[in-house]
Amino acid sequence: MLPFAELHLHLEGTLEPEMVFELAERNRVALPWRDADDLRGRYSYGCLQDFLDLYYANMAVLRTEADFAELTDAYLARAARAGVVRAEVFCDLQAHTARGVPAPVVLSGVADALGRAEADHGVSAGLILTFLRHLPAEDAARSYAEAIATGVDLLGVGLCSSEIGFPAAPFADLYARARADGLHTVAHAGEEGGPDSVWEVLEHLRVERVDHGIRAMSDPELVRHLAERRIPLTVCPLSNVRLRAVGELSAHPLPAMLDAGLVACVNSDDPAYFGGYLDDNIAAVTDAFGLTPDQVATLARNSIEASFLPAADKQRLLSTVPA
Ligand code: HPA
Ligand code: ZN
According to the model, what pLDDT value does residue 61 have? Predict the structure, then answer.
């Protein structure tokens, strides 16, 4: 099995319908769905916002430190079976504190599972705190301060949620602060928004990686910029199909991204909502595009290069990918 780094994964997006019901019962949260199948039957979305509405609603069942630890551990176990050896995962802390779950409950639960990831699952793991761009930057700054106060180790910061109509530039000061604190920086852009949205996170947030970025492909200068600087793009094919960012998988720009020399890698985004984990995404693009073993190995290599692992760890992992 090829070793992959998974770099675009929302922990809350790994909440499977069965776990929604299990946690609802344990925490006495009332749900508007009959059962897990009823809930799963509603996972058809017209756009990003349709999905986000359900994604935030389901989070209501996550209440305790143990809930967050179980969610994270279940993801790590499944990711390990998919060939993931490195996971840099997102947590939408603001979505939890906004509904009254304190930051230490959320982050201690997640960090507990991430801390055991290497020993329990053979996965090295890091945590990226994601800010919600539909909320004011001041909210995000408060959330950042709360996260730092927990003492939990952060690998980086990110930006997600609704893209169109919610500019990234207001988050520039917060990104500068995180960078000064020694954290890595990423941001969602170019999922529903166009190339300008990608330029915005590069210029204002100075991100090291772009999450999605598929719409960069319509701007040749941007493609050149990303390729020359080897700025990675964390692509999520099944997510893009489910959220209608592309019409169908065969129309996905992944092959064009690889042909352009971009450091594009494949990720699962919100696997419980989009029909598959990392291995399912790799299988789907391999099948849709008839990717050769060499092209799949390039995706594995790109994912490792795109990770925030120390150079020596990257070299060690890269040496295990067949040339
Ligand atoms: N896009 C933006 N925000 C998100 C996503 C996504 O695909 N998944 C979870 N939050
Ligand atoms: Zn995402």
Answer: 98
